[in-house]
Design a protein that fits this description.
With 303 residues, this protein is of the alpha/beta class. It has ten helices and 13 strands. The protein has three domains: 4-97 and 198-218, Periplasmic binding protein-like II (D-Maltodextrin-Binding Protein, domain 2, 3-Layer(aba) Sandwich); 104-184, Periplasmic binding protein-like II (D-Maltodextrin-Binding Protein, domain 2, 3-Layer(aba) Sandwich), CATH 3.40.190.10; 228-302, Double Stranded RNA Binding Domain, CATH 3.30.160.
């Protein structure tokens, strides 16, 4: 039987994530062999160019989706936060794995937390969402563009090129680098990106065998939370790199969603939350977005 091929970016983190999916699949399907095909994306090739200037949507997934549509791979493993809200019509997200910690993490060269960083310190991030929320709390800090794989960004902190950086906690956890975390940023300080910490597995809609293999990996509470977040983002009309944030959480059969919209400079920032039924996450996401739009979110996004 031919191997089942999963497409992945070639970064250390992407490969760890894809091999984790294969581990889950192998445990359930001992008679099936699995392979990884590394695919370079636009975001990987143009590492020095700010993401916000690269069209924003799909820069880490487009080439992988093209390989999936062409039948070169049977499935694709993505960090869900990299996926645009518009899914190609012939593709579907068949599984969202149990979500890891969605929070952002501060990595500081001298072990100082966000409040303790000296005035004027240079903090690195390539995310307008992170930059806006950090500026809202610490307008005295300098925010510098920071691109590259996770290990590259950590090296820039260690070398002193930046005093600190904000990255996804889940990525550090998956690579076994939890000891590099200086501070986990609470939701009250920095609401995460839509889908952060979640892995999404994508297939062609006509591939029933792939669906049979992969659908058992789906984690319904994680899907519910991320679905609400993406509905929030879609209603606001924002892309992956707009200063928009959302975090859903399912507890006791109820869904709570926190959302944020900011001006690029972080001088104006709106936050709100909403609770709803787990059976209607899209409705919760849309309603929270509409509440923020009533408070002036559209004006912030047009800046």
């Amino acid at each position: 039987m031919p191997a089942f091929i999963l497409g992945s970016r070639g970064s250390a983190l992407a490969l760890v994530q894809t091999h984790f999916v294969i581990q889950q699949l192998s445990q359930r399907n001992p008679g099936v062999s699995f392979e990884v095909r590394k695919i370079k994306t636009q975001g990987d090739v143009q590492r020095r160019r700010p993401l916000s200037r690269m069209g924003g949507k799909g820069v880490f997934v487009k080439e992988i989706q093209q390989a999936l549509l062409a039948g070169e791979v049977h499935a694709a493993v993505h960090s869900y936060k990299d996926l645009p809200v518009e899914c190609p019509p012939d593709l579907e997200i068949v599984a969202i794995l149990r979500r890891d910690d969605p929070r952002d993490a501060l990595v500081s060269r001298n072990g100082l937390d966000l409040q303790a960083l000296p005035r004027g310190a240079l903090l690195g991030t390539g995310s307008p969402r992170r930059a806006a929320q950090i500026r809202a709390l610490r307008p005295d800090l300098q925010i510098g563009e920071l691109r590259g794989n996770l290990d590259t960004r950590l090296r820039k902190v260690s070398s002193g090129a930046v005093e600190a950086a904000v990255v996804a906690a889940a990525g550090l956890d998956r690579l076994g680098w939890q000891d590099r975390i200086t501070q986990l940023l609470p939701r009250e300080v920095c609401i995460p990106a839509v889908g952060q910490g979640a892995l999404a597995v994508e297939i062609r809609t006509d591939n029933d065998e792939a669906r049979r293999l992969l659908s058992p990996l789906d984690h319904p509470p994680s899907r519910t939370a991320v679905t609400a977040e993406r509905a929030f983002l879609e209603r606001l009309g924002g892309g992956c790199h707009s200063p928009i944030a959302a975090m859903g959480e399912v507890q006791g059969g109820r869904l709570t969603l926190w959302g944020m919209v900011a001006s690029p400079g972080g001088d104006r920032l709106l936050r709100d939350s909403m609770e709803g039924d787990t059976d209607s996450p899209e409705q919760v996401g849309r309603h929270l977005a509409e509440r923020l739009l009533e408070q002036g979110a559209s004006e912030l996004l047009e800046v």
